[in-house]
Amino acid sequence: MNAPLNADQLATTLTSGGAGWMVLSVAAVLPILWSFTLILHFARPYIIRFLRRLTLRFGGDVWWLSYVLFRDGLLVVTLGLSMIFLMPNLYLTGQGLPITAPLAVVVLFWTLAVKLLRDADDDPGAFRLESILLIIASILYIVPQVYGMEAQDQANLGNLPSLLVSTSNLAVARPLFWVSIGLFSLTGVGIFIWYIGKAMRAAAVSDGAETS
Amino acid sequence: MTPDQVSGFFSAGEAFVEGTIGAALVVLWLLVLALHLGRPYMAATTSKFTLRLGADLWWIIYVAIRDIFTVQVFLGSFIFFYPDVVKAQTLPVTGGIAAVCAFAVLLIKLMTKGDGDRRGYQWQIGLLAVGATLYIAPYLIGVQGTQLTGAHLPGIVKALVSSSNPDLALPLCYLSAALVGILGIVAAVYNLRQTNVRKPAAAAVPESTR
Q1: How far is A22 from chain B (nearest CA, A)?
Q2: Could you give the 3-state DSSP secondary structure of residue B112?
Q3: How far apart are CA B47 and CA A24, in angstroms?
Q4: With a threshold of 0.90, does the pTM exceed it?
């Protein structure tokens, strides 16, 4: 069907085409954001080495706070943009998205949970855990994006690209999607319960201090 | 307008974005090389400050801009790891290898003493020069020379553009992605082995950094 479109059809086609273009652009930009996230996370020894050279506390403050702000802000932005992978219409229909992207979102959420529950800058174990989670999440996203979504015209890769795109491998994509939604929700609930527990403990301690 | 034309409209948008990134990278490569080569000037200016605060800020801003642009060059070059983009768009054929050079510079910054390590700095300059050449030369002669005519020029131009030389561009695309992956693993392992390196002691570091 290639007949000229009437005004309504043109508006609908342009809107859905624009939405698809936007989603695919976000998906294409995310490997860059993931790389930036990894670079900033693993730049920590370099940042600390430079910090030690600064002669003034003010300079040290500016340097370290800028680093932490960018590193953690970028992590949150990456999670925010990745939320499109938890939308069934985008992931399970249309032109498809990287097949393990929802799982990458869950692992990224776990990384942020580690950051929230433990102090990764002072606890080497937490830093290690955070690093490993970040590496796993980035592989889960970047590999199917580059060799699936961005390699669909490559005959030399055989069946690989179609296996890595959600809409062309629905048998794997569907369960993966619902499991990811479940894990994401459970993690969110877990963080909420932890926060309520912490607030109640803090209230109990302050009440105890007042009565004594 | 027909449905095919609407689809073509969005394909053109994608090509425009990728072409613009390709053009912007020329400027970014030059900027990064200039900022690294400008280090003696920056260091000389630092010694002229009469206030330590000014000198610290000058040096911090210089290092931050220099390094963030180096990261930007690598991130912008990420399109060279996308096989479909490399095959379809007119991009420099060696852009992916240039991206590997940028990433190697970042790795050197991470694993050496940085500005205090003269040898490491020389390696950084060398890699940046190689990377800039591998990017800028095929961009100017190849991508920006597709409408030139002459006895030998069209053949050279064709060889330097990814879409007209996919037999070289695609292997380089896969090779550069693999090299970046290996360098990335090295960076991750280095970091995990450094987890015993803590931030400086409380006395030496500002309150808010603890």
Answers
A1: 10
A2: coil
A3: 50
A4: no
